[in-house]
Design goal:
The complex is a heterodimer of chains A (about 675) and B (about 325). By secondary structure, chain A is mainly alpha-helical. Chain A has helices spanning about 1-20, 25-55, 80-100, 110-130, 135-155, 160-190, 205-225, 230-240, 240-265, 270-295, 300-325, 330-365, 375-380, 380-395, 400-420, 420-455, 460-465, 470-490, 490-505, 535-555, 580-585, 585-590, 595, 625-650, 655-675; strands spanning about 60-65, 70-75, 525, 530, 560-565, 600-605, 615-620. The chains are: A mainly alpha (about 675), B mainly alpha (about 325).
Chain lengths: ~675, ~325
């Protein structure tokens, strides 16, 4: 069993080293490293599928002992880890194939050797994070992951925007890591061990509450939960698209993994308020994430905000699960965890596909601004199709996978509504409302993305001349989209794998009779005395379509179809500038939610011959990022102000004062030694 | 086998009844204006005529534009299968989840809105943008109302909700159901583009929403879109009629055909009642300013949420 895993680690390492060696030969380097990492991912898929399917007990995979005390890297797998390994491997397989074509543009500009080295190390570090057996290896791989992803974010360092994004990212992620270090040290002080194991009953409730808050802050930054999300909308657009796909598809999920591992398994989720906190933050992230996504014109930033929304949906599931577990309702906890984990892998699929698709648009049209695109559906037909299908999926529409996890989340909320205390019920109903609204807003957001970028007429020269991307890029996207469709049509398969996880964590199986491929009658997915069967529905839709298509064809057998220009009210030709823009499309919602967006309008006129006929008009609309303006900016300003002031008291520039510092430190250390 | 029989019967009935509902509303409106109005069967003629006509397609449009009418139509029909028109159809064999039905309708809307943007016309974009705003604002109210119904029934399955309505007194007699009924009624008006929100009889005005998206469609595409809108309207009418108003559970007839026809007659009576309500709303109100629609959505949400809270206080 562990052979496959060792092969995987080995292949990634070899790929990383080879790419450093072959720095000079861009093309060869790109092909070899990506094929190697695709092979490694393939091992990972087989490994995790086999593990989850057989539902094996936890097993140690790798162990490096150093002579330094505590420094031992131990990797271990259990069902929860295996599930995250599965989503990591699937995404990295597709991303590697995609990179074969995608990186061609960067051969001349950047050092591909270093890039591919970093990429493989990045994947490897994420793999280590989700399989770490002790806190030391967790922390080391977590830090490598953060640093390498920082390097990848600022890889296109020609652009000052990217450096700024990288700076915000590295500061935020280190604040998060600091909280994690404190938490791990606290655990060590209390229990004397760095093992990641269930220690809930060894700690006092007081300490557990503190630990929960530390973990929440530490992992919340990485997950991008609002209000800790500020780095996310900058870092994702700055990175290359294959990196954004990995960052959004997997890296932010490692935080979900960490939260589940440390709050649910290590601390044992004993307090209801923990779950409620996570649920509330999830609801907040869902609502605000998608609301901000709607206002974006940079399609990569739009996708980044949408990641925040999806993390919110996952957090709603995790929150319910932890709340229900604390209330000893394992059935509800199981369903909620099922929903959350299903959404984790779904988000990996569709957000991976969407970021890869965004990369394809950028590859073809060289712009990240939606307002410069248009009419790409005719120029990039396959990319367009894939992005359309992935958008349907992320908007939670049947028969795609997004619907299944959203439905499961709704069912988990329904269980809370039916079984738990009155306060929780009201909270659950509000979550239902927010989730419903987020679904509709997500649809609006992705309609805007597709409608402006792919439909209508091209709005610029670049869009006019764009051409379809290479085959390998389409392959990477296409595989993910196919997985979205398959996971939506046959959710039983993924649930069967997830069943091992809930069995392991709660000893509870929400779907008995799913083991093996004995699908239920009519492929139905029954929970809470109700069920959905996307497969049957789609079958029915196709049957209806088939019948009516021929019926309509028969009735209209004498009619013709002709092409003509769009109706222009008789005023002559319509031009691309008369189309609705992305800004215009979202304007009604900007006005309705003006309290949230605080839109600012600026109209500049240059004086013409008469005040009524200005020569030039310039109209700028911007929305306010509330959290940055009212929380982060004042905070950083007051911090720098305070630091600047206190530095005068500490570093006075006088040698005498420095000598006193040294003396004081010496005395303190002596006293410390004397006492302990 | 029973399932297939059910689907076929239900689809035939929906196709027959949906244009009729539109006809009834139009007729009532015409009477209120002291006009004769078009015959009840006018929409059937219109659809038949449209299907036989030539279609004109914009040069700018991509395949999305061609596909959208079919998807909108098929998803509306598929969603209508979830809401059996009569209880005897429901007894035939039926299972379905209400959230899936709502999301199927959303799938149809997704394509309809995309098609509005596809032709590069300003009207289409305007309609699409407004439709998405109304949809996003109305969605929370709809989810809360349906979830409360689900809570009353113990499950979000449609059959559970209908059974809850069948067992004992009809749901409409409960105070919280009255609130839910009004909430869903407002949602119906918004979703089917009726007067306080949108005007179905307008063409080429700057205020239109639904019609603006369909402006470029002609011939069979337009027929499909119109039919899809009628089916969607019938779905919401059926929700009101069969989830709240009395169902023919008191009938224990041995002859299934007789029971079916009596049930159908009862359904038609309820249909006329709800259509009268819709027509009354259209007659008595004027079209709201577009940015007052959020208030209407908020009222609907408040009603649904109050219904939910009251359900806890009073209980079943």
């Amino acid at each position: 069993m562990s052979i496959l895993f060792k092969q995987m680690v080995l292949l990634y390492t070899v790929a990383a080293v080879l790419s450093l060696i072959l720095t000079r030969y861009h093309r060869l380097n790109n092909i070899i490293t990506n094929l190697l990492s695709a092979a490694a991912s393939f091992c990972g898929i087989i490994f995790s599928l086999k593990y989850l399917y057989l539902s094996l007990p936890a097993a140690e995979l790798l162990r490096f002992e150093a002579t330094v005390p505590f420094l031992s890297i131990v990797l271990r797998v259990d069902n929860l880890s295996a599930f995250f390994v599965l989503s990591l491997s699937v995404l990295t397989l597709c991303v590697s194939l995609y990179s074969l074509g995608y990186m061609k543009h960067y051969f001349a500009k950047n050092n591909i050797g270093v890039f591919n080295f970093l990429l493989n190390i990045f994947i490897l570090s994420m793999l280590c994070v989700i399989t770490s057996a002790n806190m030391i290896s967790f922390l080391i791989s977590w830090e490598i992951m953060s640093l390498v992803s920082f390097a990848l974010v600022v890889f296109e360092s020609q652009d000052p925007e990217n450096s700024r994004a990288g700076l915000i990212y590295i500061i935020m992620t280190h604040i998060g890591t600091a909280f994690l270090i404190i938490a791990f040290m606290l655990i060590y002080v209390q229990t004397g061990s760095f093992e990641i194991s269930s220690i809930g009953n060894l700690l006092s409730p007081h300490i557990k509450n503190i630990l929960f808050l530390l973990f929440m802050l530490g992992f919340g930054v990485k997950a991008g939960i609002i209000p800790l999300h500020v780095w996310l909308p900058y870092a994702h657009p700055a990175a290359l698209s294959n990196i954004s796909a990995l960052m959004s598809g997997i890296m932010i999920k490692t935080a979900v993994y960490g939260l589940l591992r440390f709050v649910l398994v290590v601390l044992g989720a004993s307090n209801t308020w923990w779950g409620i906190t996570i649920l509330l933050l999830g609801v907040l992230s869902t609502a605000l994430g998608i609301a901000y996504a709607l206002m974006e014109h940079n399609y990569k930033r739009l996708l980044a905000y949408s990641s925040i929304e999806n993390i919110g949906i996952i957090m709603i599931g995790v929150g319910i699960s932890i709340t229900a577990y604390a209330e000893h309702q394992t059935a509800i906890a199981g369903i909620a965890l099922l929903a959350a984990l299903f959404h984790v892998i779904n988000h990996t699929f569709f957000k991976g596909a969407l970021f890869l698709g965004a990369g394809a648009i950028h590859y073809a049209a060289h712009t990240k601004n939606l307002e410069d695109l248009g009419g790409l559906m005719k120029r990039l037909p396959y990319t367009g199709l894939f992005i359309l299908l992935a958008s349907l999926s992320i908007s939670a529409l049947p028969p795609f996978n997004g619907f299944v996890s959203e439905w499961l989340t709704f069912q988990a909320l329904f269980q809370v509504l039916a079984n738990l205390s009155i306060g929780l019920k009201i909270l659950a109903m509000l979550s239902v409302a927010v989730l419903g609204m987020a679904g509709a807003l997500a649809a609006a957001c992705f309609i805007k993305f597709i409608g402006i970028a792919f439909l209508g007429k091209p709005r610029s020269e670049q869009a006019q001349t764009a051409r379809e991307v290479p085959f390998t890029m389409l392959l990477g996207m296409g595989m993910l989209v196919l997985l979205c469709l398959l996971a939506g049509l046959f959710p039983q398969f993924i649930l069967m794998l997830l069943d091992s996880v809930t069995q392991e964590l709660f000893g509870f199986s929400p779907i008995p009779g799913l083991k093996g491929f004995s699908f239920l009658p009519y492929f139905e997915l029954p929970i809470n005395k109700t069920g959905v069967s996307p497969f049957i529905i789609i079958f029915m839709c196709l049957a209806i379509l088939f019948i009516f298509y021929f019926f309509i064809k028969y009735i209209g057998r004498n009619s013709r179809q002709r092409l003509f220009k769009t109706w222009d009210c008789g005023f002559g030709d319509l031009n691309p500038r008369m189309q609705y823009t992305a800004t215009g499309f979202s304007k009604p919602l900007r006005i309705v939610f003006r309290l949230l967006y605080q839109p600012k309008r600026e109209l500049q006129l240059t004086q013409g011959p008469s005040p009524y006929y200005p020569n030039e008009q310039n109209y700028v609309v911007s929305t306010e990022t509330v959290f940055e303006k009212y929380i982060y900016r004042p905070l950083t300003l007051s911090f720098t102000h305070w630091a600047r002031k206190t530095i005068f008291y500490v570093q006075t520039g006088s040698v005498h004062i420095y000598l006193i510092y040294i003396l004081a430190a010496l005395i303190l250390l002596l006293v410390y030694n004397w006492i302990f | 086998m029973n399932e297939i029989l059910y689907v076929i019967l239900q689809l035939i009935l929906v196709m027959l009844v949906a244009p009729l509902a539109t006809g009834i509303i139009k007729k009532v409106k015409a009477f209120s204006q002291k006009r004769q109005g078009p015959p009840l069967t006018q929409m059937y003629y219109d659809l038949y005529k449209l299907l036989k006509k030539d279609t004109v397609v914009s040069e700018t449009a991509s395949w999305v534009y061609h596909l959208a009418p079919y998807i909108t139509f098929v998803t509306a029909l598929a969603a209508s299968v979830f809401f059996p028109l009569t209880a005897s159809l429901f007894n035939l064999s039926f299972q379905g989840d209400i959230i899936l039905a709502v999301y199927l309708l959303a799938l149809g809307r997704f394509f309809m809105v995309l098609a509005g943007l596809d032709t590069g016309s300003t009207f289409g974009g305007m309609g699409s943008s407004r439709e998405m705003m109304i949809a996003s604002l109305i969605e929370p109210a709809l989810m809360v109302a349906l979830f409360t119904l689900g809570l009353i029934a113990g499950s979000t399955s449609v059959s559970a909700i209908i059974s809850a309505n069948q067992a004992g007194s009809p749901l409409i007699l409960n105070p919280y159901s009255l609130l839910l009924f009004s909430a869903i009624f407002i949602i119906l008006i918004a979703e089917t583009a009726r007067i306080p929100v949108d005007d179905p009889s307008t063409h080429l005005e700057l205020t239109m929403v639904h019609e603006a998206m369909l402006l470029e469609y002609s011939g069979k595409h337009l027929a499909l879109m119109e039919m899809a809108a009628a089916v969607k309207q019938l779905i919401f009418i059926t929700i009101l009629a069969n989830f709240f108003l009395p169902l023919e559970s008191f009938l224990t007839l041995s002859n299934p055909f007789l029971a079916f026809f009596i049930g159908l007659a009862l359904y038609l009576i309820k249909l006329i009642a709800v259509s009268l309500l819709i027509a009354a709303a259209e007659i008595c109100t004027v079209k709201l300013r577009f940015f007052s629609v959020p208030n209407l959505a908020a009222i609907s949400f408040a009603l649904a949420f109050l219904g939910f809270m009251q359900f806890f206080v009073i209980g079943r």
